[in-house]
What does this fold into?
Amino acid sequence: MSELDNKKMPSDELLTAFIDGELDAAESDRIEKLIASDAQVAERFDFLSRSDLPFREAFEPVLTAAPSAKLTAMLAAIPSTNAQKKAASGVSRRGFLSAIAACLVVGVAIDRAAIDINRRLNKPEEGSDWRAVVAEYLSLYTPDTLSAPAGDHAEQAAQLSEVGSKLGVTLTPETVALPGIDFKRAQILNYDSKPLAQIAYLDPESGPMALCIIPSTTGVAAPDMENRRGMNVVYWSNTTHAFMLIGHSPIDRLKALADGVRQSLAA
It folds into this structure.
């Protein structure tokens, strides 16, 4: 019995087979009559016809990189029809989309394995995890958190010197100064058994702000920006350390402040 029931909407598979020229003459004739007589069928036919896009060209790089042996085995398990392939393309749309689906399944598995390997091999401070931890910590700060006096210049210098010695970085009140923003304190925190320096400020315009530094072996990276916990972040790294400036200040202002302190620390 034909797959087509003249009283029902034909399946997308059947309409796609009709579009791809994969039906025999009798079945194709029935579909043509139904399209001509049923507005819903005609509308669905038009939709599926418009989806005849250059999928092969778009996904060619993915297919080239795919593990062909595994894809071949997966596709062999898909029930096939005895229809002929389009001569122009050498592959029907259904067959090609099946290959894409198989490729995506394999790709997801490979990506998940790669992510798991990276998580095990990469040092935490070399990624973005440490910035997420800092953002979560700083999100708890209020102006009252930093209300205590910062001490005089000598006391600030002593704090910064002690913190800098833990990381092998020279820190002074002058090198970490942010114009118009009050220095409040410098302290050493711990991240994955590594020292993490936090230099806290109180911006009269936007509230708590922090310059944080951690040892890193990722190499030199130019400043970049992101948003975490509702705060803006500018981060960068040199050959030995990673840096971030984080706060509620608008990103343009924060970037300007980060550029200044980055130059001071590099001098």
Remarks:
- Residues 2 and 27 are 7 Å apart (CA to CA).
- Residues 52-56, 80-91, 108-125 have pLDDT under 50 and may be disordered.
- The radius of gyration is 31 Å.
- The first helix runs from residue 12 to 19.
